[in-house]
Design brief:
Elements: H1 3-19, H2 24-40, H3 43-58, H4 65-79, H5 81-91, H6 99-115, H7 118-135, H8 140-150, H9 161-170, H10 174-202, H11 225-240, H12 246-263, H13 269-303, H14 305-316, H15 319-334, H16 340-358, H17 362-375, H18 384-392, H19 400-423, H20 426-429
Helix pairs in contact: 1-2, 1-13, 2-3, 2-13, 3-13, 4-12, 4-13, 5-6, 6-7, 6-8, 6-10, 6-11, 7-8, 7-18, 8-18, 8-19, 9-10, 9-16, 9-17, 10-17, 10-19, 11-12, 13-16, 14-16, 15-16, 15-17, 15-19, 16-17, 17-19, 18-19
Length: 434
């Protein structure tokens, strides 16, 4: 059996293993090990191959950016700064129907600039924004859908854990990807805000339900926005000006977030321990996935599959635009059954060489990938943000169907923004001068 056939059979084996419910990292590493064994005919070489690939994948200096940004995001989440951000923004948007929904989107955009994790945003604003929107008369499905939909900004507006993961998989610049995420992130936030404003104008009954006691908190000092904006400014400004590397920026941001949280007396020793444990859990999970992906990508390269697929795509005449649309469609479909990180780990090592041959900018490809992946957070049956919102509000009687219905328009809006980013690369690459 030739190398290409073994490579393609390995791809099929990985797909079967994942669909059968095997953990993605185990499927990638296990099948790749068998593939290398078949390619070399020697188990010892396959073991050495796996060990070397696994060690190299997490020994890089840039990998340190993962736990540092996770630590910063969790510290900010634990400190309650998301709640303060929403309370302050909500005061200025109560003058129109759908205003609290717009405040939720804007708060998520600000919160995304210091967290980088969508599920953290979904959990925080489920507790903070949904009760106030419902108390103000917003239909509950709209309220929960708004939180689930706008939570995706956490993985698009930098710093973003998915963009960091993409940079590791493609050996590209984290700083360039962060800068590239600004345009699509702001465009998506604007599109969400316009949708809610138009909905409030033409379907006011969705926002004029029975009022209960509650509403936006008028007691939160506006000055509490300064720590959030200052933290985002220091971290992202340091990266964009070249004063920090992304890894150094993560360290500065994590330290600043912890200092702020302790200084404001928002967390104590028990809270700090909880943050440290959660950071370890998330980092270990991401590390395990990256090791599996590294073994998988090296096995693919060894078998010659990426070169074979690249030749076929180039010869087909599909072109850069056609490939991006096809890739986005496949990724969005995979989002119905896999989580975001797993989709990237499976698809990017195979697709990235094709984009290089077709002349597609790596930042453009990265943002298209993240947007397509994020649509899966809102689509059934495995919409992770939807599940987080429902789990957080289960005691309030919120059902999965209710959240999925409310989030559906946001998924469609994301598809529209994704189309715009594919057709107009400058939305992603304009700020980096490409």
């Amino acid at each position: 059996m030739d190398s290409l056939m073994i490579g393609y059979l390995s791809l099929a084996g990985i797909g079967v293993a994942i669909y059968a419910g095997l953990h993605v990292a185990i499927a990638l590493a296990g099948v790749s090990f068998l593939g290398v064994w078949a390619l070399t005919g020697k188990a010892a070489l396959a073991f050495n191959f796996v060990a070397l690939a696994g060690t190299d994948s997490i020994a890089e200096y840039t990998f340190g950016v993962v736990p540092l940004f996770v630590l910063m995001g969790l510290a900010v989440s634990e400190s309650g700064l998301g709640r303060d951000t929403f309370a302050i923004i909500a005061r200025s948007t109560r003058g129109w129907r759908g205003g609290l929904g717009v405040a939720t989107v804007l708060s998520n955009a600000v919160f995304a600039a210091i967290t980088g994790i969508s599920i953290a945003s979904a959990a925080v604003f489920s507790k903070v924004a949904v009760p106030q929107m419902v108390a103000a008369g917003t239909k509950r499905s709209i309220a929960v859908g708004t939180v689930a939909g706008s939570s995706v900004l956490g993985m698009l507006i930098p710093p973003s854990l998915l963009l960091i993961l993409f940079a590791i998989l493609t050996d590209s610049s984290v700083g360039d990807l962060f800068l590239g995420g600004v345009g699509p992130g702001l465009l998506l936030a604007l599109a969400f805000g316009v949708y809610l404003t138009v909905l409030g104008r033409f379907r006011p009954q969705l926002f004029d339900g029975p009022k209960t006691l509650g509403g936006a908190d008028d007691t939160t000092p506006s000055a509490l926005m300064l720590p959030v904006l200052g933290l985002a400014g220091v971290v992202l400004g340091g990266i964009y000006t070249g004063f920090f590397t992304p890894t150094e920026a993560g360290a500065v941001g994590a330290a600043a977030a912890l200092i702020l949280s302790f200084a404001m007396r928002r967390i104590g020793t028990s809270g700090a321990w909880r943050i440290a444990v959660q950071t370890g859990h998330i980092t270990a999970a991401v590390c395990f996935l990256i090791v599996g992906a590294s073994i998988y990508s090296r096995m693919l390269a060894f078998s010659g599959v990426p070169a074979s697929v690249t030749e076929w795509v180039v010869a087909s005449g599909i072109g850069p635009l056609g490939f991006l649309f096809l890739f986005a469609l496949i990724v969005a479909a995979m989002g119905t059954i896999l989580d975001s990180s797993s989709i990237m780990l499976v698809t990017v090592p195979l697709a990235f060489p094709i984009t290089q041959e077709l002349g597609i900018d790596v930042v453009h490809f990265g943002l298209v990938t993240v947007l397509a992946v994020e649509i899966g957070l809102l689509t059934p049956p495995l919409g992770l943000s939807v599940f987080v919102v429902q789990a957080t509000l289960r005691h309030e009687g919120v059902t999965l169907g209710e959240v999925f219905r409310g989030a559906a328009p946001f998924a469609l809006i994301m598809a529209g923004v994704l189309t715009a980013v594919i057709l107009i690369p400058d939305i992603a690459t304009g700020l980096i001068g490409r």
